[in-house]
């Protein structure tokens, strides 16, 4: 069993990039961490860490070793949780990546409800539109919309998000109401991610190339620009629900709205998954099972 000593300390240093930070995380002294890692390196016969006065980095051997042992450590934590029945008492930190209006208005409240059930659990929700690398950035799972390109990730469908086209009364009074998607070529269109909008007519998809003078990758800003009368917006219906109910926006082109795409929970394909991650994913899938 001596061959396993120092692995936990090494993994903590690799994760936190420092002996002091690792010691704080493990609740022990810095000297203990340093001593254990040194003993591990001696047993393995190679340096795992490159030490300097300011920073600690992984050597090539250290990087390879860390990738191997971190999943084993997660598996050990999972085994401990199962034996001690901690699946009803979740701890640690859950890191989630998401972006857009759906994340702010629907996902965040769901995670808040989940967090309220586990007072010892910390949740970090990163609302950054940057497409993160889940493994490199230490993210447990992400919420992504539309077509998924990374086949190395496991994906579970969260919700379907059909589309809706809207405009403000002031814009429609000034520019007229488009009766067919092709008429959008003569309107200011508020562009989120794509300049080609997909509609459906008689069961067939129809793509329309649109133009506009307001572009943003933030759904809330697109909606606010639409309310201000800057143009026509076309995004998932959930984005406009409150504004339509408050008569701030008017639905248009309803017979041609597209089916849109799905929002997915994606996470790395790992042999071991911390129970807090599994519990959060299962909670979200159940939470949104009846969502419209």
Helix content: 25-40%
What is the CATH class of the largest domain?
Alpha Beta
Which structural class fits the helix and strand makeup?
alpha/beta
CATH fold-level assignment of the largest domain:
D-Maltodextrin-Binding Protein, domain 2
SSE string: HHHEEHEHEEEEHEEEEHEHEEH
How many H/I helical runs?
Answer: 9
Low-confidence segments: none
Shape: elongated
Biggest sheet record? 5 strands, mixed
Notes on the protein architecture:
The protein is α/β, with parallel strands linked by helices. It folds into three domains: 2-83, Arc Repressor Mutant, subunit A (Orthogonal Bundle), CATH 1.10.10.10; 90-161 and 262-287, Periplasmic binding protein-like II (D-Maltodextrin-Binding Protein, domain 2, 3-Layer(aba) Sandwich); 163-259, 3-Layer(aba) Sandwich (D-Maltodextrin-Binding Protein, domain 2). 38% of the residues lie in helices and 24% in strands. The chain contains nine helices and 14 strands. The chain has helices at residues 7-16, 19-26, 30-44, 60-83, 101-116, 169-175, 219-227, 237-245, 275-287; strands spanning 49-51, 56-58, 92-98, 121-127, 141-145, 153-161, 163-167, 190-191, 196-201, 204-209, 214-215, 233-236, 250-252, 261-268. The strands form five sheets. A five-stranded mixed beta sheet has the order 4-3-5-14-6, covered by helices on one side. A three-stranded antiparallel beta sheet has the order 12-7-13. A two-stranded antiparallel ribbon has the order 1-2. Strand 9 and strand 10 form a beta hairpin. Helix 1 (7-16) packs across helix 2 (19-26), helix 1 (7-16) packs across helix 3 (30-44) and helix 2 (19-26) packs across helix 3 (30-44). The protein starts with 6 loop residues before the first helix and ends in a 5-residue tail after the last helix.
